[in-house]
C-alpha cells in the first residue's frame, strides 16, 4: 500500500512540474528509535502528503521537451517566412519546411530517448536511506520517507531531510549550506540540516521537516542542474552565434525586400522569395539541433557504459581536461583496506603492559564501523578483553584520529603526524620505513588527556604501528598510461602519508610519482600555487586544501577534473571544471559530481574521454559546414544591398544545397569515431575553417552575377549556375573537412553528390533548377575551374594570418610575464 501511494505521487510529480502535495493534518509523534513508526502511522503520513518528495522533478518532462523544441525563435522565423511564401503563392519554395519539421522531430525523439535512459539510470542510483519501521531496519528511497521516520545516518550519508538526533553522536559538515568547512558534533536533541553530510559517527534521527519544507529538494536540484553560467564552451559559442544571427536577419531581411521591391522594381513575389532565400541561408537551423542530438546520443552511450551524467557540460569539459586530480583510495586502489601487520614501538613493554592485540581489540570493538579503516581494524583485531569504553570520538577527517576513553586511560588511533605532533621526528625513521613499502601507517597510543574530537593537546605515547594497504586496481596502470599518452597530467591528492602515496602511485604507473610533498608544509596560497605546478603526489592533504589545489590549478589556466568518492572530496568536486564520483562512495560526493561511475570502475574513464572528443571534434567539424552557408549568405546579402542587385538564389535552391552539402553529411560526421585531442577555442576553430570556403562562394557567385548582367544572361540561368557553383564549393569543403577519408566518409560524399544530381535533374522543377544558355554555361565552367585555386590560396592566407596572430599573442604574453617577474 505504501509503495503504491508513493508510486502514484511520483507519477503525478513527473506529469506536473508545479506539483506540490496536498497536506492533511496528522498527529505528530516521537517514536522510540529502536521501533520507529508503525504501519498505520506510515499510512496516515502517506495519505496526508507528508512524504519526502522533492518540489520539482529532476529532469524536464516530455511535455516540456516537446514545447522547448517546437516553440523556438528560429521556428517562429521559419513559420513567418513560410506564411509569406504561401501569401505570394511561391509554394515550390517551401521545401525548407519539411527539413525544419524533420529537424524538430529528430530533436524531440532523441531528447525523449535520452531522458528515458537517464531517468532509469538515475532511478537505479537514487539516494537511499536506512529507516527503522516496525522495529526492523529497511533501506528505501529517500523520497519514500515520511515525517517522524527514524533514519540511521552514518559517515558519508547526505542528510536527506531536516532531522533531530534521537540517539548516538555524529560529526557533520554543513559546508554545502554555510560555506564553512568546520565539522560540528551533533548530540541527542541537536538539529541535522538537510543538505549537510555525516563525516563520522552514527546516529538515529527523527525527520522533523520533509519534502517542500526542507532544504534538500532545492539543494539537490542545484547540485545536479546545469546553471546557465556553467554551460560548456561549445554551447556558449553556439548561443552567441545564434543570438547574433537572430538579431542580424531582421534588419537585413527588411533592407533586401525594400531594395528589391522599391528600388529594383522587382515584383512582390520575387522580392519576397529573394528575401526569404537570404534569411534562410543565414539561419543555422540545423547546427544547434546537431549539437543537442550529438550530446544526447553521447549521454545514452555513456549510460550504457554505466556512467551517469548529471549535466551535458561534463562531456565536453572532460574531453578538454589537461589535469586530472585523483584520490588514492577508491581511484588508484580498491575501496577496501586490509591490515598488513602490527609492530610494537620501543615504548611498549610487553612485561608490564596488557597484550597489544587485546588493547587494540578493545579499542576497535568500542568504535562504530563508519569508515573502511575501522572496518579493516575490526576485522583483524577481533579478540578483546571485554572492557567497555566510557567515551569515544569518531574519526575526524580534519584532525585524523579517533579515540576511546576507558576507566584507566584514553587511547587514540590515527595519522602519525597528527597524533605525535612535536614528537613525530623521533619516530619518523621507523614510520617512513614502513610507509616506503606502500603501507598506510597508523599510530596506536596512550593519551594523557581525554580527547574531545578536536586537535590533540596532551602527549601521546606511541605503543604500536598498524600497517594497512589498499590493493591497487588491476586496470589502473593501463588507465594512467592512456592519460599520459594523451598529455593529461595526473595529480594524486590524498590524506595519507606522502611516502606511502608515492609508492602506490609508482605501482600504478603514474608519471612523476617520485615528486611528492607533504601538504602540511604548504601554509600559504603562494606555496600551494608553486607546489601544484612542481609536484605530482600530495600527502596529508586536508579537505580545505583539496579545494585550494583545484583553485590554484584553474587559476594557472588548466582545465581540471577531480575524482573522489568520500565526503572529504565534496568541496573540491564542487569547484572542479569536471567532477567524477564513484557510486560506491558517499551520497554527498555523488550528488556534488557531474559524472557518476555507477560501477565505480575508473578504467572506463578513457572511453568517457574518447566519447567527449568524438562529440566535440565532430560537432566542430560539422559546424564549419553550417557556418560556410551562414557566412556566405550574410556576405552575399551585404553584397546585394551595396551593389543594388536582387539576391540571386531562391529558397528551394538554398534548401537543396543545405541538405546535401551540409545537413546530411553533418549528421553522419557527428556520429563517427574521433580520437583527436581538442585544441583551441570552438568558435575560432569553426570560423577559420569556414571562412575560406565562404569567401570563395561569395567571390564566385558575386562575380557570376556581375558578369552575367554584363553579358545579358537571364537571371534564372544565373540562379541555376550559382546553385551549382555553391554545390561544387560545398563538396570541396566537405572533402577537406572529412580528411583523412575512410569507407564511410567516401560513401557519404558519393551518396550526397548522387542525391544532389538526382534532385537537380529528376526533381529540377521542385528545386528551381533550369537549363542554362551557352553564355551561362561558359561562365559557369570558367568560375567552376577558378574555385579550386581560390579556395586553396584563401585557405593558405587564413592560416598565415592565424600563425602571425598566434605569434604576436604569444610574444605579448611572454613580455607580460617577463615584466611581472622583473
Summarize the entry for a quick read:
With 822 residues, this protein is of the alpha/beta class. The protein contains 27 helices and 21 strands. Helix 24 packs antiparallel against helix 25.
How many H/I helical runs? Answer: 27
Helix content percent band: 40-55%
What percent of residues are in strands? 5-15%
What is the molecular shape? elongated
Q: Report the C-alpha radius of gyration, rounded.
A: 33 Å
By DSSP, the count of extended strands is 21
Q: Ranges with pLDDT <50 over ≥5 residues?
A: 1-20, 222-230
Distance between the termini: 75 Å
Strand order of the largest sheet: 8-21-20-19-9-16-18-17
What structural category do the secondary elements indicate? alpha/beta
Oligomer: single chain
Task: Compute the average pLDDT.
Answer: 84
Main sheet characteristics: 8 strands, mixed
From the structure above, extract its key features.
822 residues, alpha/beta, eight-stranded mixed sheet, seven-stranded antiparallel sheet, 21 strands
Could you characterize the architecture of this molecule?
It is a single chain. This protein is α/β, with parallel strands linked by helices and 822 residues long. The protein has 27 helices and 21 strands. The strands form 3 sheets. It has an 8-stranded mixed β-sheet, sandwiched between helices. Strands 1, 2, 3, 4, 5, 6 and 7 form a 7-stranded antiparallel β-sheet that branches. Strands 10-15-14-13-12-11 form a 6-stranded antiparallel β-sheet. It starts with a helix and ends with a helix. The model is unreliable at 1-20 and 222-230 (pLDDT under 50).
Amino acid at each position: 500500500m505504501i509503495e503504491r501511494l508513493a508510486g502514484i505521487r511520483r507519477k503525478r510529480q513527473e506529469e506536473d512540474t508545479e506539483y506540490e502535495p496536498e497536506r492533511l493534518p496528522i498527529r505528530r509523534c516521537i517514536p522510540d528509535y529502536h521501533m520507529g513508526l508503525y504501519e498505520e502511522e506510515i499510512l496516515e503520513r502517506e495519505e496526508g502528503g507528508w512524504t519526502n518528495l522533492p518540489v520539482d522533478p529532476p529532469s524536464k518532462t516530455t511535455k516540456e521537451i516537446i514545447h522547448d523544441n517546437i516553440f523556438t525563435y528560429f521556428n517562429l522565423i521559419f513559420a513567418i517566412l513560410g506564411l509569406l511564401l504561401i501569401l505570394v503563392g511561391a509554394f515550390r519554395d517551401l521545401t525548407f519546411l519539411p527539413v525544419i519539421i524533420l529537424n524538430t522531430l529528430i530533436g524531440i525523439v532523441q531528447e525523449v530517448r535520452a531522458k528515458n535512459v537517464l531517468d532509469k539510470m538515475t532511478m537505479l542510483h537514487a539516494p537511499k536511506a536506512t529507516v527503522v519501521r516496525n522495529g526492523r531496519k529497511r533501506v528505501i528511497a529517500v523520497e519514500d520517507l515520511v515525517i517522524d521516520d527514524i533514519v540511521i545516518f552514518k559517515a558519508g550519508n547526505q542528510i536527506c531531510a531536516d532531522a533531530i538526533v534521537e540517539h548516538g553522536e555524529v560529526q557533520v559538515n554543513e559546508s554545502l549550506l554555510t560555506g564553512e568547512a568546520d565539522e560540528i558534533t551533533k548530540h541527542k536533541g541537536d538539529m541535522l540540516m538537510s543538505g549537510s553530510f555525516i563525516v563520522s559517527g552514527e546516529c538515529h534521527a527523527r525527520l522533523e521537516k520533509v519534502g517542500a519544507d526542507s532544504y534538500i529538494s532545492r539543494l539537490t536540484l542545484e547540485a545536479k542542474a546545469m546553471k546557465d553560467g556553467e554551460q560548456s564552451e561549445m554551447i556558449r559559442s553556439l548561443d552567441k552565434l545564434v543570438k547574433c544571427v537572430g538579431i542580424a536577419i531582421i534588419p537585413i531581411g527588411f533592407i533586401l525586400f525594400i531594395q528589391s521591391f522599391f528600388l529594383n522594381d522587382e515584383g512582390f513575389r520575387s522580392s519576397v522569395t529573394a528575401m526569404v532565400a537570404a534569411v534562410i541561408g543565414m539561419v543555422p537551423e540545423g547546427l544547434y539541433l546537431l549539437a543537442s542530438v550529438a550530446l544526447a546520443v553521447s549521454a545514452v552511450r555513456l549510460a550504457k557504459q554505466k556512467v551517469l551524467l548529471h549535466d551535458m557540460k561534463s562531456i565536453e569539459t572532460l574531453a578538454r581536461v589537461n589535469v586530472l586530480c585523483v584520490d588514492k583510495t577508491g581511484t588508484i586502489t580498491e575501496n577496501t583496506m586490509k591490515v598488513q601487520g602490527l609492530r610494537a614501538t620501543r615504548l611498549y613493554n610487553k612485561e608490564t603492559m596488557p597484550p597489544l592485540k587485546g588493547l587494540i581489540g578493545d579499542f576497535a570493538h568500542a568504535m562504530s564501523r563508519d569508515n573502511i579503516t575501522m572496518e579493516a581494524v575490526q576485522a583483524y583485531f577481533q579478540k578483546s578483553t571485554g572492557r567497555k569504553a566510557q567515551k569515544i570520538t569518531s574519526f575526524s577527517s580534519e584532525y585524523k584520529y579517533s579515540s576511546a576513553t576507558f576507566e584507566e586511560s584514553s587511547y587514540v588511533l590515527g595519522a602519525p603526524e597528527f597524533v605525535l605532533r612535536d614528537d613525530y621526528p623521533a619516530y619518523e625513521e621507523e614510520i617512513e620505513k614502513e610507509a616506503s613499502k606502500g603501507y598506510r601507517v597508523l599510530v596506536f597510543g596512550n593519551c594523557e588527556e581525554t580527547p574531545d574530537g578536536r586537535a590533540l593537546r596532551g602527549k601521546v605515547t606511541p605503543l604500536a604501528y598498524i600497517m594497512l594497504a589498499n590493493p591497487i586496481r588491476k586496470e589502473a596502470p593501463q588507465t594512467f598510461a592512456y592519460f599520459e599518452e594523451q598529455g593529461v597530467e595526473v595529480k594524486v591528492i590524498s590524506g595519507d602519508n606522502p611516502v606511502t602515496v608515492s609508492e602506490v602511485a609508482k605501482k600504478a604507473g603514474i608519471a612523476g610519482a617520485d615528486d611528492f610533498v607533504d601538504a602540511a608544509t604548504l601554509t600559504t596560497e603562494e606555496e600551494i600555487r608553486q607546489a601544484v605546478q612542481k609536484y605530482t603526489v600530495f600527502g596529508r592533504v586536508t579537505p580545505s586544501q583539496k579545494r585550494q589545489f583545484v583553485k590554484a590549478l584553474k587559476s594557472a589556466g588548466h582545465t581540471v577534473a577531480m575524482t573522489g568518492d568520500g565526503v572529504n572530496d565534496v568541496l573540491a568536486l564542487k569547484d572542479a571544471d569536471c567532477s567524477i564520483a564513484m557510486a560506491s562512495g558517499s551520497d554527498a560526493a555523488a550528488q556534488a559530481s557531474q559524472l557518476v561511475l555507477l560501477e565505480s570502475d575508473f578504467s572506463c574513464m578513457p572511453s568517457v574521454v574518447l566519447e567527449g572528443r568524438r562529440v566535440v571534434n565532430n560537432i566542430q567539424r560539422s559546424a564549419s559546414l553550417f557556418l560556410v552557408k551562414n557566412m556566405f549568405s550574410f556576405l552575399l546579402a551585404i553584397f546585394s544591398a551595396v551593389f543594388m542587385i536582387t539576391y540571386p538564389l531562391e529558397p528551394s535552391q538554398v534548401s537543396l544545397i543545405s541538405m546535401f552539402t551540409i545537413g546530411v553529411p553533418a549528421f553522419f560526421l557527428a556520429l563517427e569515431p574521433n580520437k583527436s585531442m581538442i585544441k583551441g577555442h570552438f568558435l575560432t576553430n569553426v570560423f577559420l575553417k569556414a571562412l575560406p570556403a565562404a569567401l570563395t562562394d561569395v567571390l564566385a557567385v558575386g562575380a557570376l552575377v556581375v558578369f552575367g548582367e554584363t553579358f545579358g544572361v537571364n537571371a534564372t540561368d544565373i540562379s541555376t549556375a550559382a546553385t551549382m557553383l555553391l554545390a561544387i564549393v560545398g563538396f570541396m569543403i566537405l572533402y577537406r573537412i572529412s580528411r583523412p577519408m575512410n569507407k564511410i566518409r567516401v560513401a557519404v560524399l558519393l551518396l550526397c553528390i548522387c542525391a544532389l544530381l538526382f534532385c537537380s535533374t529528376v526533381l529540377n522543377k521542385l528545386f528551381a533548377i533550369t537549363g542554362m544558355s551557352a553564355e551561362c554555361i561558359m561562365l559557369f565552367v570558367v568560375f567552376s575551374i577558378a574555385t579550386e585555386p581560390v579556395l586553396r590560396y584563401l585557405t593558405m592566407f587564413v592560416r598565415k594570418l592565424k600563425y602571425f596572430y598566434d605569434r604576436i599573442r604569444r610574444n605579448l604574453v611572454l613580455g607580460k610575464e617577463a615584466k611581472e617577474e622583473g
